[in-house]
Design brief:
This protein is an all-alpha fold. The protein is built from seven helices and no strands. The longest helix is centred in the N-terminal third of the chain and has 21 residues. It has a single domain, classed as N-utilizing Substance Protein B Homolog, Chain A, CATH 1.10.940.10.
């Protein structure tokens, strides 16, 4: 799968997580299905999008704990919805997905933040993901 398809998958998952968060729903897979029905989504992006969504859903409590531990003076529920969900996506890839190098996962989260979030969010997200990666003693 090309990087372009993976980026699209990440953006799709972010949108599904965002919708579920705004709606107060835990039905993120239903959100993903709705997005796919309403928008022309590349078939190449779907398998990785589902893999990400399942992994994030399965590990959400651990992911949120890692975010809280590494975000100095920030609680997950105080973060903007978009930043919180970019971080969930990034933390999953850094800490739980061995297929993606941490540097790639962090860079992807930063690029997505630049596209979807506030101007200062990219550096905020970078700092937290770097701390998670360092704390995990993980991959390059």
């Amino acid at each position: 799968m090309k990087t372009g398809a993976r980026r699209k998958a990440r953006e799709l998952v972010l949108q599904a997580l965002y919708q579920a968060d705004v709606n107060g729903s835990h039905e993120v897979e239903a959100q993903l299905d709705t997005l796919c029905e309403n928008f022309l989504i590349s078939k190449k992006a779907m398998p990785y999008a589902r893999e990400l969504l399942e992994g994030i859903s399965r590990n959400i409590q651990k992911i949120d704990s890692l975010i809280t531990e590494n975000a100095k003076n920030w609680r997950v529920d105080r973060m903007s919805i978009i930043d919180r969900n970019i971080l969930r996506l990034g933390v999953f890839e850094v800490a739980f997905n061995e297929q993606v190098p941490a540097t790639v996962a962090i860079n992807e989260a930063i690029e997505i933040a630049k596209r979807f979030s506030a101007d200062d969010s990219a550096s905020f997200i970078n700092g937290i993901l770097d701390a998670v990666n360092y704390g995990q003693g993980k991959k390059q």
